[in-house]
Amino acid sequence: MVRAVVCRELGAPERLRLEEFPPRALKPGEVRVAIRAAGLNFPDVLMAAGEYQLKPELPFTPGVEAAGDVTEVGPEATGVAVGDKVIVKMRFGAFTDEAVVMPSQLTPKPSTFDYAEAATYLAGHGTAYHALIDRGRVEPGEVLLVHGAGGGVGLAAVEIGKMLGATVIATASSDEKLAIAKSRGADHLIRYDREPFRDAVKRITDGRGADVVFDPVGGQVFEDSMRCIAWGARLLVIGFTGGIGSARTNLLLIKGASVLGVRAGEAVRRNPALGEVRLKALVQWAEEGKLRPNVSHRLPLEDYAKAMRLLIDRKAIGRVALVMD
User: Fold this and answer.
1) 181, 156 in Cβ contact below 8 A?
2) What predicted TM-score, i.e. pTM, was given to this entire model?
3) Helix residue ranges per DSSP H, 139-174
4) Are 62 and 48 in contact (CB under 8 A)?
5) Helices (H), the chain
6) pLDDT at 242
7) Which Gene3D superfamilies does UniProt cross-reference here (predicted)?
Protein backbone atom coordinates (compact mmCIF):
# COMPACT_ATOMS: atom_id res chain seq x y z
CA MET A 1 0.00 0.00 0.00
CA VAL A 2 1.06 3.57 -0.71
CA ARG A 3 0.72 6.25 1.98
CA ALA A 4 -0.27 9.78 0.98
CA VAL A 5 -1.31 12.96 2.76
CA VAL A 6 -4.78 13.81 1.46
CA CYS A 7 -6.71 17.08 1.52
CA ARG A 8 -10.45 16.32 1.44
CA GLU A 9 -11.55 19.65 2.95
CA LEU A 10 -9.79 22.99 2.76
CA GLY A 11 -8.38 24.44 5.95
CA ALA A 12 -5.59 24.08 8.49
CA PRO A 13 -2.90 21.38 8.20
CA GLU A 14 -4.65 19.37 10.92
CA ARG A 15 -7.57 18.76 8.55
CA LEU A 16 -5.33 16.75 6.23
CA ARG A 17 -5.28 12.97 6.62
CA LEU A 18 -2.68 10.27 6.02
CA GLU A 19 -4.36 7.57 3.94
CA GLU A 20 -3.33 4.36 2.18
CA PHE A 21 -3.98 3.40 -1.42
CA PRO A 22 -3.04 0.46 -3.64
CA PRO A 23 -0.36 1.36 -6.20
CA ARG A 24 -1.78 1.97 -9.65
CA ALA A 25 -0.52 0.48 -12.89
CA LEU A 26 1.64 2.69 -15.11
CA LYS A 27 0.23 4.14 -18.29
CA PRO A 28 2.43 4.48 -21.40
CA GLY A 29 5.11 7.11 -20.87
CA GLU A 30 4.87 7.10 -17.06
CA VAL A 31 7.50 6.36 -14.40
CA ARG A 32 7.14 5.15 -10.81
CA VAL A 33 9.33 6.78 -8.16
CA ALA A 34 9.78 5.62 -4.57
CA ILE A 35 9.79 8.93 -2.67
CA ARG A 36 12.51 9.16 -0.01
CA ALA A 37 11.90 12.78 1.00
CA ALA A 38 9.49 15.60 0.18
CA GLY A 39 10.14 19.31 0.60
CA LEU A 40 7.70 21.70 2.24
CA ASN A 41 6.96 25.14 0.81
CA PHE A 42 4.60 27.85 2.00
CA PRO A 43 2.39 27.40 -1.10
CA ASP A 44 1.62 23.89 0.24
CA VAL A 45 0.03 25.50 3.30
CA LEU A 46 -1.87 28.01 1.17
CA MET A 47 -3.04 25.36 -1.30
CA ALA A 48 -4.42 23.16 1.50
CA ALA A 49 -6.28 26.20 2.84
CA GLY A 50 -7.66 27.13 -0.59
CA GLU A 51 -5.75 30.42 -0.56
CA TYR A 52 -3.23 29.78 -3.36
CA GLN A 53 -3.62 30.77 -7.00
CA LEU A 54 -3.59 27.08 -7.99
CA LYS A 55 -6.69 25.35 -6.60
CA PRO A 56 -6.66 21.59 -7.31
CA GLU A 57 -9.94 19.70 -7.24
CA LEU A 58 -10.61 17.87 -3.99
CA PRO A 59 -9.30 15.47 -2.89
CA PHE A 60 -5.63 16.09 -3.63
CA THR A 61 -2.21 15.52 -2.09
CA PRO A 62 -0.09 18.62 -1.33
CA GLY A 63 3.62 18.95 -2.10
CA VAL A 64 5.44 20.36 -5.11
CA GLU A 65 8.86 18.72 -4.82
CA ALA A 66 10.38 15.43 -3.73
CA ALA A 67 13.37 13.16 -4.28
CA GLY A 68 13.67 9.41 -4.57
CA ASP A 69 14.51 6.39 -6.70
CA VAL A 70 12.98 5.24 -9.98
CA THR A 71 11.50 1.78 -9.38
CA GLU A 72 9.56 1.16 -12.61
CA VAL A 73 9.61 2.57 -16.12
CA GLY A 74 6.48 2.23 -18.21
CA PRO A 75 6.33 1.56 -21.94
CA GLU A 76 7.25 4.56 -24.12
CA ALA A 77 8.98 6.31 -21.21
CA THR A 78 12.46 7.35 -22.33
CA GLY A 79 15.56 8.95 -20.82
CA VAL A 80 15.18 7.29 -17.42
CA ALA A 81 16.09 3.90 -15.94
CA VAL A 82 15.23 1.86 -12.87
CA GLY A 83 17.59 2.82 -10.05
CA ASP A 84 18.04 6.45 -11.10
CA LYS A 85 18.18 8.84 -8.14
CA VAL A 86 16.02 11.81 -9.04
CA ILE A 87 14.38 15.05 -7.99
CA VAL A 88 10.65 15.09 -8.75
CA LYS A 89 8.91 18.34 -9.73
CA MET A 90 5.12 18.47 -9.29
CA ARG A 91 2.35 21.05 -9.14
CA PHE A 92 1.01 19.05 -6.18
CA GLY A 93 1.12 15.42 -5.00
CA ALA A 94 4.58 15.06 -3.41
CA PHE A 95 3.60 14.16 0.19
CA THR A 96 3.54 10.43 -0.46
CA ASP A 97 5.61 7.24 -0.43
CA GLU A 98 5.30 6.81 -4.17
CA ALA A 99 4.67 9.04 -7.18
CA VAL A 100 3.72 8.21 -10.74
CA VAL A 101 5.05 10.94 -13.02
CA MET A 102 6.34 11.70 -16.50
CA PRO A 103 10.09 11.64 -17.27
CA SER A 104 9.94 15.39 -17.97
CA GLN A 105 9.23 15.91 -14.26
CA LEU A 106 12.52 14.29 -13.22
CA THR A 107 15.96 15.80 -12.70
CA PRO A 108 19.04 13.80 -11.67
CA LYS A 109 19.75 14.19 -7.96
CA PRO A 110 23.00 16.11 -7.40
CA SER A 111 25.64 13.73 -6.07
CA THR A 112 26.53 16.26 -3.38
CA PHE A 113 23.02 16.15 -1.83
CA ASP A 114 21.20 13.65 0.33
CA TYR A 115 17.51 13.00 -0.42
CA ALA A 116 16.19 15.69 1.96
CA GLU A 117 18.49 18.31 0.44
CA ALA A 118 17.55 17.26 -3.08
CA ALA A 119 13.84 17.42 -2.20
CA THR A 120 14.17 20.99 -0.92
CA TYR A 121 16.36 22.46 -3.64
CA LEU A 122 14.66 23.32 -6.90
CA ALA A 123 11.55 25.17 -5.69
CA GLY A 124 13.33 27.61 -3.38
CA HIS A 125 16.53 28.06 -5.36
CA GLY A 126 14.59 28.03 -8.63
CA THR A 127 12.43 30.89 -7.38
CA ALA A 128 15.50 32.82 -6.20
CA TYR A 129 17.22 32.23 -9.55
CA HIS A 130 14.21 33.43 -11.54
CA ALA A 131 13.79 36.45 -9.28
CA LEU A 132 17.39 37.62 -9.21
CA ILE A 133 18.56 36.63 -12.69
CA ASP A 134 15.52 36.59 -15.01
CA ARG A 135 13.50 39.35 -13.35
CA GLY A 136 15.78 41.45 -11.16
CA ARG A 137 18.89 41.15 -13.34
CA VAL A 138 21.20 41.65 -10.38
CA GLU A 139 24.61 43.01 -11.34
CA PRO A 140 27.93 42.69 -9.45
CA GLY A 141 28.36 45.49 -6.94
CA GLU A 142 24.65 46.19 -6.52
CA VAL A 143 23.01 46.17 -3.10
CA LEU A 144 20.48 43.36 -2.63
CA LEU A 145 18.05 43.53 0.30
CA VAL A 146 16.68 40.08 1.17
CA HIS A 147 13.67 39.90 3.46
CA GLY A 148 12.82 36.71 5.31
CA ALA A 149 16.42 35.59 4.93
CA GLY A 150 15.91 32.81 7.46
CA GLY A 151 13.28 31.13 5.27
CA GLY A 152 13.91 28.68 2.47
CA VAL A 153 13.50 31.01 -0.50
CA GLY A 154 15.11 33.96 1.32
CA LEU A 155 18.18 31.96 2.24
CA ALA A 156 18.43 30.75 -1.36
CA ALA A 157 18.36 34.40 -2.47
CA VAL A 158 21.20 35.22 -0.08
CA GLU A 159 23.30 32.41 -1.58
CA ILE A 160 22.59 33.25 -5.21
CA GLY A 161 22.83 37.01 -4.67
CA LYS A 162 26.27 36.66 -3.13
CA MET A 163 27.35 34.34 -5.94
CA LEU A 164 26.26 37.02 -8.45
CA GLY A 165 28.56 39.54 -6.78
CA ALA A 166 25.95 41.63 -4.94
CA THR A 167 26.37 43.16 -1.51
CA VAL A 168 23.69 41.27 0.42
CA ILE A 169 21.71 42.77 3.30
CA ALA A 170 19.75 40.05 5.10
CA THR A 171 16.78 40.66 7.38
CA ALA A 172 15.27 38.10 9.75
CA SER A 173 13.51 37.75 13.08
CA SER A 174 16.21 36.05 15.18
CA ASP A 175 19.96 35.91 15.71
CA GLU A 176 19.93 32.20 14.86
CA LYS A 177 18.38 32.85 11.45
CA LEU A 178 20.78 35.70 10.76
CA ALA A 179 23.76 33.53 11.71
CA ILE A 180 22.76 31.01 9.04
CA ALA A 181 22.29 33.84 6.52
CA LYS A 182 25.77 35.11 7.34
CA SER A 183 27.22 31.63 6.84
CA ARG A 184 25.63 31.59 3.36
CA GLY A 185 27.19 34.90 2.33
CA ALA A 186 25.18 37.81 3.79
CA ASP A 187 27.36 40.92 4.21
CA HIS A 188 25.05 42.84 6.57
CA LEU A 189 22.46 41.58 9.03
CA ILE A 190 19.30 43.31 10.30
CA ARG A 191 16.95 42.02 13.00
CA TYR A 192 13.46 43.38 12.44
CA ASP A 193 12.82 43.99 16.16
CA ARG A 194 16.04 45.89 16.89
CA GLU A 195 16.00 48.64 14.30
CA PRO A 196 13.54 49.65 11.56
CA PHE A 197 15.05 47.96 8.53
CA ARG A 198 14.50 50.95 6.28
CA ASP A 199 16.69 53.04 8.64
CA ALA A 200 19.30 50.29 8.80
CA VAL A 201 19.47 49.99 4.99
CA LYS A 202 19.98 53.74 4.64
CA ARG A 203 22.69 53.61 7.30
CA ILE A 204 24.48 50.68 5.68
CA THR A 205 24.33 52.26 2.19
CA ASP A 206 25.18 55.82 3.33
CA GLY A 207 21.69 56.96 2.38
CA ARG A 208 21.71 55.52 -1.16
CA GLY A 209 19.36 52.58 -0.59
CA ALA A 210 19.03 49.10 -2.06
CA ASP A 211 19.17 48.41 -5.80
CA VAL A 212 17.11 45.22 -5.58
CA VAL A 213 14.61 44.12 -2.92
CA PHE A 214 13.73 40.42 -2.62
CA ASP A 215 10.43 40.26 -0.73
CA PRO A 216 8.65 37.00 0.14
CA VAL A 217 6.96 38.67 3.13
CA GLY A 218 4.79 41.47 1.75
CA GLY A 219 2.49 43.58 3.91
CA GLN A 220 4.17 46.40 5.81
CA VAL A 221 7.60 45.02 4.84
CA PHE A 222 6.88 45.74 1.18
CA GLU A 223 5.58 49.22 1.95
CA ASP A 224 8.58 50.12 4.10
CA SER A 225 10.94 48.76 1.42
CA MET A 226 9.87 51.52 -0.95
CA ARG A 227 11.36 54.01 1.50
CA CYS A 228 14.89 52.59 1.37
CA ILE A 229 15.53 52.03 -2.34
CA ALA A 230 18.03 53.54 -4.74
CA TRP A 231 17.26 55.17 -8.07
CA GLY A 232 16.13 52.56 -10.60
CA ALA A 233 15.51 49.93 -7.92
CA ARG A 234 13.68 46.70 -8.68
CA LEU A 235 11.27 45.39 -6.03
CA LEU A 236 10.71 41.66 -6.48
CA VAL A 237 7.37 40.41 -5.15
CA ILE A 238 7.92 36.74 -4.22
CA GLY A 239 5.06 36.11 -1.81
CA PHE A 240 2.91 37.48 0.97
CA THR A 241 3.47 35.49 4.15
CA GLY A 242 3.00 38.75 6.07
CA GLY A 243 -0.02 39.99 4.11
CA ILE A 244 -0.72 41.89 0.90
CA GLY A 245 1.23 45.15 0.60
CA SER A 246 0.14 48.32 -1.19
CA ALA A 247 2.41 50.09 -3.66
CA ARG A 248 2.77 53.85 -3.17
CA THR A 249 3.09 54.96 -6.75
CA ASN A 250 4.54 58.34 -5.83
CA LEU A 251 7.54 56.66 -4.19
CA LEU A 252 8.04 54.40 -7.20
CA LEU A 253 7.87 57.38 -9.55
CA ILE A 254 10.33 59.48 -7.54
CA LYS A 255 12.88 56.65 -7.52
CA GLY A 256 12.26 55.47 -11.09
CA ALA A 257 11.60 52.06 -9.52
CA SER A 258 9.95 48.91 -10.85
CA VAL A 259 7.77 46.35 -9.07
CA LEU A 260 8.16 42.89 -10.58
CA GLY A 261 6.01 39.87 -9.83
CA VAL A 262 7.91 36.58 -9.56
CA ARG A 263 6.25 33.29 -10.55
CA ALA A 264 9.04 30.88 -11.35
CA GLY A 265 6.81 27.94 -12.24
CA GLU A 266 4.39 29.86 -14.43
CA ALA A 267 7.29 31.55 -16.25
CA VAL A 268 8.62 28.14 -17.27
CA ARG A 269 5.20 26.88 -18.33
CA ARG A 270 4.92 29.88 -20.65
CA ASN A 271 8.54 29.72 -21.81
CA PRO A 272 10.10 26.26 -21.31
CA ALA A 273 13.48 27.48 -22.56
CA LEU A 274 13.82 29.56 -19.38
CA GLY A 275 13.44 26.43 -17.30
CA GLU A 276 16.09 24.52 -19.22
CA VAL A 277 18.70 27.22 -18.64
CA ARG A 278 17.75 27.58 -14.97
CA LEU A 279 17.80 23.85 -14.27
CA LYS A 280 21.16 23.34 -15.94
CA ALA A 281 22.70 26.16 -13.90
CA LEU A 282 21.23 25.02 -10.58
CA VAL A 283 22.36 21.42 -11.04
CA GLN A 284 25.85 22.56 -12.06
CA TRP A 285 26.17 24.91 -9.07
CA ALA A 286 25.01 22.13 -6.75
CA GLU A 287 27.57 19.69 -8.13
CA GLU A 288 30.27 22.35 -7.75
CA GLY A 289 29.32 22.84 -4.09
CA LYS A 290 28.28 26.47 -4.60
CA LEU A 291 24.67 26.02 -3.47
CA ARG A 292 23.07 23.80 -0.81
CA PRO A 293 19.71 24.09 0.94
CA ASN A 294 19.79 24.39 4.72
CA VAL A 295 17.38 21.73 6.02
CA SER A 296 16.67 22.67 9.63
CA HIS A 297 14.00 20.02 10.26
CA ARG A 298 13.50 16.47 8.97
CA LEU A 299 10.27 14.83 10.09
CA PRO A 300 8.55 11.53 9.23
CA LEU A 301 5.66 11.62 6.76
CA GLU A 302 3.07 11.11 9.51
CA ASP A 303 4.19 14.41 11.11
CA TYR A 304 3.06 16.42 8.07
CA ALA A 305 0.88 18.79 10.15
CA LYS A 306 3.71 19.51 12.59
CA ALA A 307 6.03 20.14 9.65
CA MET A 308 3.61 22.57 8.03
CA ARG A 309 3.19 24.37 11.35
CA LEU A 310 6.95 25.00 11.40
CA LEU A 311 6.46 27.09 8.26
CA ILE A 312 3.35 28.84 9.53
CA ASP A 313 5.03 29.73 12.84
CA ARG A 314 8.26 30.70 11.06
CA LYS A 315 10.33 28.31 13.17
CA ALA A 316 12.15 26.74 10.23
CA ILE A 317 15.58 28.03 9.23
CA GLY A 318 15.86 27.35 5.53
CA ARG A 319 13.90 24.26 4.62
CA VAL A 320 11.74 21.51 6.17
CA ALA A 321 11.58 17.99 4.73
CA LEU A 322 9.33 14.99 5.23
CA VAL A 323 11.41 11.81 5.14
CA MET A 324 10.04 8.38 4.34
CA ASP A 325 12.83 6.06 5.54
Assistant:
1) no
2) 0.92
3) 152-163
4) yes
5) 42-49, 115-119, 122-129, 152-163, 175-183, 197-204, 219-225, 249-255, 264-270, 272-287, 304-312
6) 80
7) Medium-chain alcohol dehydrogenases, catalytic domain (3.90.180.10), NAD(P)-binding Rossmann-like Domain (3.40.50.720)
DSSP string, 20-59: EEPPPPPPTT-EEEEEEEEE--HHHHHHHHT-SS--PPSS
Instruction: Classify each residue of 192-209 as buried b or exposed e, where b means 16 or more C-beta atoms within 10 Å of its C-beta.
Output: beeeebbebbbebbeeeb
Predicted confidence band of residue 246 (pLDDT cuts 50, 70, 90): confident
Burial class (CB in 10 A: 0-12, 13-18, 19+), 298: middle
Q: How many CB atoms lie within 10 A of CB 93?
A: 21
3-state secondary structure of 165: coil
Buried b (16+ CB within 10 A) or exposed e, 281-296: bbbebbeeeebbbbbb
What is the DSSP pairing of strand 143-146 with strand 210-215?
parallel
